[in-house]
## 1
Amino acid sequence: MNDYRLDLIHRPRRLRANENLREIVAEIDLRTRHLVQGHFVIPGSSEQQEISSMPGVSRYTADRLIPVVERDLANGVRAVMLFGVPDVKNPQATGALDADGEVPNAVRLLKTAFGDELTVMTDVCLCPYTDHGHCGFIEGEEVVNDSSVATLAQMAAVLAEAGADFVGPSDMMDGRISEIRHHLDDAGFERTSIIAYSAKYASAFYGPFRDAAGSSPSFGDRRSYQMDFRNSREAIREVLLDLEEGADVVMVKPALAYLDIIRAVREVSTVPVAAYNVSGEYAMVQLAVREGIAEERAMVLEVLGGIRRAGADLIITYHASRAAAEGWLS
Ligand code: PBG
């Protein structure tokens, strides 16, 4: 008869009784300083194109990006990740090495405008620049590794030259971190950091991004270079290799179906861990909000908070602008 009284010595609800208490005992913080806003950059000037599969996100020309970033910065978002959406695509991905391309131009404008107040990260990958949409060069039906890596390293140097603080290789070729590091150092860019997309999975959640960036592969898929979602030990292997090769930050991507991977990487990584809350994850929330079946603020905070709790230091997310503008975070 006394059993239930014994059990009730333990009342976890005591610590949930009011807002102040909940604040005092909260285990993690989610702040604007943890967020990196992703942006799509198009060539030219004075243009903004809405992206239908990503409500609230647009492609901007470099000049139009400036005021957008300025407002985010004023709201506390200190970092951006830039993706190019070029006009020119060819088998050699020549656009990736164009020092006058849309991304180098945007980097120069942003760094001139905001200096060290803004950390500029740039995606390094060939898929927006190849006509076949794969992340490396093609021989027959194969995405070849080593020649792709050589060009990725050159692309990284072009971005570093433009002033990028971080280059972010997202191609998943083997050995690219070490090649990029050596190439950057040889070219005098030893101060440019590498945020490595270390554990990047072949994912259905990249759909809206490929629409936004026009980077869908024209044949096959990315499973011969991006990781299989059934594997976690392999993620650790990729992370350890990237650390050995010189990554300054390692990343897990996507985030929501991979929270266990974020946690596991957190346990082994000696550098900050980033997680990428990708386009499909963003679109699911936005479409649910649009349909009236989700409350945006609550859902965004829960999504980003969950990624933080899993162990991410940084979160690359398309929700950053709005979350900061609406004052959802401190
Ligand atoms: C380029 C790249 C992709 C993403 C980031 N860099 C697409 C892909 O690998 O197909 C996806 C980002 C997102 O979905 O938000 N390789």
## 2
Amino acid sequence: MDFPTIRPRRLRRSASLRRMVRETELGPGRLIYPMFVTHGKGVRNEIRSMPGCAQLSVDLLVQEAREAHAAGVPGVILFGIPARKDATGSEGYARDGIVPQAIRALKDALPDLLVWGDVCLCEYTDHGHCGVIRNGNVDNDATLPLLAKAATVYAEAGADVIAPSDMMDGRVGAIREALDDEGFSEVAICSYAAKYASAFYGPFREAAESAPQFGDRRAYQMDPPNALEALREVALDIDEGADIVMVKPALAYLDVIRRVRDEFDVPVAAYNVSGEFSMIKAAAAAGWIDEKRVAAEVLLSIRRAGADIILTYFAKDAAEILREHRS
Ligand code: PBG
């Protein structure tokens, strides 16, 4: 049977018909809001390249997390801005570091809010790399105990999910073992399993003050043309004990999200990264696109590709963004 008998437009005629046959639904309940926490009180340092996002001191962080939670967002992921940086990133795994302080305050004020702790050293090292440097290289095995330490410190502070973003080999296993040894067997791990060496992280590096001071991250993050390698990374991380696996960035890697979703049976997260956010903000500010509609379309594309969880800087406004999409 063919046209004129078949007319796909019949089911697009009204908002009610479109809603009835809609294949992908997305609400704020699947979103995680990335936040930047800094020392001090009453501090709000706006991030120039990420309009609406700011480095917040713990008091203001709690306020903003409360708003996001009230809008239906179940959780946040924290990135810390340390008071001091050094060669081994020691504030990254200090018990009284800025992230453990923030985790405690959030759990205290908002016990139902899920708190994810991003585990990586790049915000805390003076050279800006994601591990310790030996002979000009990031030393994989020397970095593992530091990441494991950061994970246990976050767990002790009350984190629900530990999210290692460093891309060292074997870090999920090292973190799982350390958590279990310290009595945190119930704390989940979401590994940044397929994390690419991407130019889309540009604005984040301003936000987190984490740009590498020499070289780049291509010797540890994945090469963008590779997809089979992503499946291998994901399989390894699941074997090592990852409960959730992440693909990052999201938009230029929707095919990878789909392949991971089809091949594995654990929840898949995708990170709608800073560059993806800032491009929309900039084009909208220039009057070239409709910000809310584009944001909804992008978030839905990530969901349609197969992501169960989306980390996005739009999370705070998502209830509104997605409501408009539904009509
Ligand atoms: C730290 C980290 C990065 C991001 C999340 N964790 C930056 C990087 O790897 O350079 C990027 C997030 C974003 O761009 O929104 N390793």
